Automatic annotation (TrEMBL):
A GO molecular function held by the record: O-acetyltransferase activity
Protein's name according to its UniProt entry: Acyltransferase
Keyword line: Acyltransferase, Cell membrane, Membrane, Transferase, Transmembrane, Transmembrane helix
Example of a GO cellular component annotation carried by this entry: plasma membrane
Species per Swiss-Prot/TrEMBL record: Oceaniferula marina
GO biological process, one term: enterobacterial common antigen biosynthetic process
Predominant place of localization: membrane
C-alpha cells in the first residue's frame, strides 16, 4: 500500500466531490425511510443497526442498494463539513475580513436559497394538503428551522423538513470560523489538533449529560462535527504532504471498530473522511475523463445547495408507495424518480434565486 500524495483540491474537483456527496445524501434521505432496518448510526450509536446491515446484506443481497444507502449514505454530510472547513479556510486566507464582514458574506450567500426553498416547501405541501393546515401546523417550526434554532427544540429538529437540521449546525460553524482561523494563524496547526480532540472528548463526556438533562443530542450542534470541520481546515493549510499508509489503515480499522463499539463510534466522522476524500478525489478524476458524465456531475455539484434544501420535502408521495410495497425494485425505481424530481425542482429554485438577485441588483 502506497502513501497518498495530497495536493490542493481544485474548484472543479471540489464541485465533483460535492456531487458525489450530495447523491449519497439524497439516496440515504429517501431510502432509509422505506424500511426501519438497517437504519443508520448517524446521531447516536446502536449496535443492532450494524448487525441489521450485515444480516440484510446476507439475507437479501438483491436489496443491497437500499441497505447500503440507508446505512452509509449519511456520511456524505461529513464530506460537506470537511469541504466547508477546507473552502472557508482558503477563502479567508485569500481575503481576510472581520468577524462581522465574514458573517454578512456567508449569510447573504446562503439565505436567498433557504428562503426560496422554504417558499417552495409551502407551495409543494399546499398542493398535497390544505394550505392553511400546512401553515398552522408547521409555520412556526419552519421559521425556527430557517433561523437555525430548531436544533435546540427536540420536537422541531426534523420538522417540517428533516435534513434542515444542517442549517443550524452550519450557521453555528460560520460563527466560529473566523475565531478558529485567527487562533490557528497565531498558534499554528496545534490549534486544530486540539479542536479535533476536544470535539471528540466533548461528545464522549458532554454528550450523555446534554442528552440526559436537556434531551439534546450534541450531534445536532457544531460540537459534534467540529472535528471534521477542523480536519478540512488542517488539510487546507497543508498544501502538499503524504498520507502514510499507516494513517489510512488506522482510519479503516477505527471506522470498522466504530461500527461495533459505542465509544469508538465517536471517531467515525474523522476516520471515514480520511478514507473517503482520497477515494472521492480518484473517482472525480475518472469522472472528468468522460465528457457527458463530467458535465452532468458538475451540474449536480453546482446544484448541491438547492438539492439539499428541497430533497427533504419532496419525498412524499413517492416514499409512501415504496413503504407500501417494501421490495427492492420499488425502492430502486422510486428513488431514481425521486432524484429526477429533486434535480428539476433544484433547477427551478436556482433560477428563481438568480432572477430575484438580478432584479434586486444583488451580486452573486
Amino acid at each position: 500500500m502506497h502513501s497518498y500524495q495530497w495536493s490542493p483540491i481544485s474548484k472543479k474537483e471540489g464541485t465533483l466531490i460535492r456531487a458525489l456527496a450530495i447523491l449519497a445524501i439524497v439516496f440515504h434521505n429517501y431510502l432509509h425511510l422505506v424500511e426501519s432496518l438497517p437504519g443508520e448510526n448517524e446521531f447516536n450509536y446502536r449496535a443492532e443497526k450494524a448487525q441489521a446491515l450485515i444480516h440484510g446484506l446476507r439475507d437479501t443481497p438483491w436489496d443491497c442498494f437500499r441497505i447500503l444507502a440507508s446505512y452509509f449514505g449519511h456520511y456524505g454530510v461529513q464530506i460537506f463539513f470537511f469541504l466547508s472547513g477546507y473552502g472557508l479556510s482558503i477563502q479567508y486566507r485569500l481575503k481576510p475580513s472581520s468577524w462581522w464582514a465574514f458573517q454578512k458574506r456567508r449569510w447573504a450567500g446562503i439565505y436567498p436559497a433557504i428562503l426560496v426553498a422554504a417558499l417552495g416547501y409551502l407551495i409543494y405541501d399546499s398542493l398535497r394538503l390544505d394550505p392553511s393546515t400546512v401553515i398552522q401546523t408547521e409555520g412556526l417550526n419552519l421559521i425556527r428551522q430557517i433561523i437555525g434554532v430548531s436544533n435546540f427544540i427536540p420536537d422541531n429538529i426534523y420538522h417540517p423538513i428533516g435534513p434542515w437540521w444542517f442549517i443550524g449546525v452550519i450557521l453555528q460553524f460560520y460563527l466560529l470560523v473566523p475565531l478558529i482561523l485567527k487562533w490557528t494563524s497565531r498558534h499554528g496547526n496545534r490549534t486544530l489538533y486540539i479542536i479535533i480532540g476536544l470535539s471528540m472528548l466533548s461528545e464522549y463526556l458532554l454528550g450523555p449529560v446534554l442528552a440526559k438533562q436537556f434531551d439534546f443530542n450534541i450531534n445536532h450542534s457544531i460540537l459534534g462535527h467540529l472535528d471534521v470541520c477542523a480536519l478540512g481546515i488542517l488539510f487546507a493549510r497543508k498544501e502538499r504532504f503524504e498520507l502514510h499508509p499507516a494513517i489510512l489503515t488506522a482510519a479503516g480499522i477505527l471506522f470498522i471498530l466504530g461500527n461495533t463499539h459505542a465509544t469508538l463510534w465517536i471517531s467515525t466522522g474523522v476516520s471515514i473522511t480520511l478514507i473517503l476524500i482520497p477515494l472521492l478525489r480518484t473517482t472525480a478524476a475518472n469522472i472528468a475523463t468522460i465528457p457527458w458524465l463530467d458535465v452532468s456531475m458538475t451540474q449536480i455539484g453546482q446544484l448541491s445547495l438547492y438539492i439539499f434544501l428541497c430533497n427533504g420535502y419532496l419525498r412524499r408521495p413517492l416514499i409512501g408507495w415504496a413503504q407500501q410495497q417494501q421490495d427492492w425494485w420499488t425502492s430502486l425505481w422510486t428513488s431514481l424518480l425521486f432524484l429526477g424530481l429533486v434535480l428539476c425542482w433544484s433547477l427551478l429554485l436556482r433560477f428563481l434565486v438568480n432572477q430575484c438577485q438580478q432584479r434586486l441588483g444583488i451580486k452573486r
